[in-house]
Amino acid sequence: xxxxxxxxxxxxxxxxxxxxxRLTALKAKGIEPHLAVVLAGEDAASHVYVRNxxxxxxxxxxxxxxxxxxxxxxxxxxxxxxxxLNADDSVHGILVQSPTPSGTDEIAITEAIDPAKDxxxxxxxxxxxxxxxxxxxxxxxxxxxxxxxxxxADIDLVGAKAVIIGRSRIVGMPLALLLAQxxxxxxxxxxxxxxxxxASICRSADLVIAAIGRPATIKADWIKSGATVIDVxxxxxxxxxxxxxxxxxxxxxxxxxxxxxxxxxxxxxxxxMTIAMxxxxxxxxxxxxxx
Length: 291
Ligand code: GUN
Prior knowledge:
Number of domains: 2
Helix content: 25-40%
Structural class: alpha/beta
Bound molecules: guanine
Order of helices and strands: EHEHEHEHHHEHEHEEEEEH
CATH architecture of the largest domain: 3-Layer(aba) Sandwich
């Protein structure tokens, strides 16, 4: 059996195209949706992610401003940048690319962002709404993108056994809340580095979501025949057959596609969905700014 690919690139561009009408309506009211992206330090992957976010903004007509800071930036300076962006009425969305440089307190930075401009959905106010069963606010982008991929492919989640591998505040934890919410109704297990026998827990799952950032960790024989597999991981690994000697790899071994019913490719699966949901949250934040 060869799994159906869940094409995040195609769905992400469809979602972005669908935002254009709402952007036009906002501009007719004199509001130009505006995303500010703070990028501190030299992390190569972060630079690629931020460039892709800026490209999407440009493609659909969202104004974007990038604030580049050196890796030597201190906590006080970062907090001042956030305070200035919070006070700037022309800015509707603020995103601080993670990870922030060592020695800075990322949680304190997240908590300093105005929740109404928190297009990453990481502020306790926005995460707290998810606990209350509300997913109408600013929902974290990667979890929202995964839910949109599952909905688009009509994957039946009611009563389904979902195993999430990874308990990060960015992906695993909010995704668990979204999958378990009323109306979605999956039964969720969160596995992590201290979980015993992850392989057999995965084998009983109808849906496996891997979000640990360790390449090819989830093997084909961990996957039940016909299960849905969502690969959130994206790592750069050595590959001598490629011109630059590297390629991108997910957390799931590619041979899992021979067992799964549906699977996301890496790249081209979850990554573009995260960006589409960021665009969606930025439009939502701009709409909420005058509601
Ligand atoms: N780093 C990796 N993923 C993300 C994300 O979704 N948002 C931010 N701000 N940083 C990230």
